[in-house]
Amino acid sequence: MKPAIRPLGYCTNVHPANTLAQVVGGLDQYAVRVARNLGRPMAVGLWFSQEVAQEILLQDDGPQRLAGELQCRELSCYTLNAFPYGDFHGPRVKQNVYLPDWSEPPRLAYTQACADILVALLGADGEGSISTLPLGFKRAHAPDFWDAAADHLIQCARHLDHLYHTTGKLLRLAIEPEPLCELETTPEAISFFQQLWQRAGRVDAERLVRTHLGLCYDVCHQAVEFEDTQESIVALDHAGVRINKVQLSCAVQVDHPGTNAAARAALMPYVEPRYLHQTVARDAAGALHRAADLTESLITAAPEPFASAPIWRIHFHVPIHARCLGLLSTTRNELPRALSAIAKLDYRPDVEIETYTWNILPDFDGDLVEGLSRELRSADEMLGAAHQTA
Predict the structure, then answer these.
(1) 303-358 pLDDT, tens per residue?
(2) What does pTM read for this prediction?
(3) What residue segments make up the domains of the chain, in order of their start?
(4) Which distant-in-sequence residues (6+ apart) come within 8 Å of 70 by Cβ?
(5) CATH level 3 topology of 9-249+347-389
(6) Distance (Å, rounded) from C-alpha 230 to C-alpha 236?
């Protein structure tokens, strides 16, 4: 039997928070008011940097006190975002968000610290998830990168298994593929997990890895890769890769950019200095071409094959209720397709909304509470429809 559907929420990486006080302040300023707008129980997918995680753990009963802060606000938490290690709202994040990568010990230590906090926040069902980066950004790595990353992930699985046996709480790590990262496509993810299971088997840890390690399926990311989300989810399931977490998000799409000068002009405000906006073009033959970031020069003087490609998709998270953004479109149509496939699985992944870009969206009016409320209402409708047809 599938577990009960838990309250849907959003990821708090949209809130700037460099201290625990700021994390709690964001709950009061935004989350509590969003829940009031919805008139239903709501979850928050908490994010805290490495510094905040250490602040919580160094306090007497820090995780339990944070659990109390959630409880008194009638908020629940069953998932954490442990992807951004440092200040996610600094003036320039870009590729730094992938550091440290999974070959480096600080990434393992940070993730385990987040797990130590999450076990205190879980509700009665005692299950939760932690999303993390897809090993690292695609670049020239040291020769032992893959081995070191795999070994750290196996160590993390052992830590999560230890927590299960000492607390009774089952935590699952969710590795999140992303364009131009070491894991970006569904075939890459499947191949990696197959290799990881084999490596874990050689140290008597395959069962632990299969239990505690899986995927975070970000619909925006796979849409940017032009994957059919339904086929992708079915392929992961058939390969035995568990989807531990789903992030609902949309990407920006530009149709006929080579001939649509107005659409290219509308895209210009999405060039911004904080986050990386990987851009993928699909040419007329279906081949994909990737640019590491959206830049003014890519828009104004795109080289081939970008110039003649009929579609561009940009990794810029935009509100999930938006089918279009003026002259630009979005990948929203992939959301109900993905949720329909998720609803057919024989288990329930954790689900949250992850639009962290509200404060840099062009023409944003500044009302984050109303924006998040609209997203959650839209998600409620899509989730309801998906479960009715499952």
Answers:
(1) 999 999 999 999 999 999 999 999 999 999 999 999 999 999 999 999 999 999 99
(2) 0.98
(3) 9-249+347-389
(4) 27, 44, 76, 77, 121
(5) TIM Barrel (3.20.20)
(6) 10
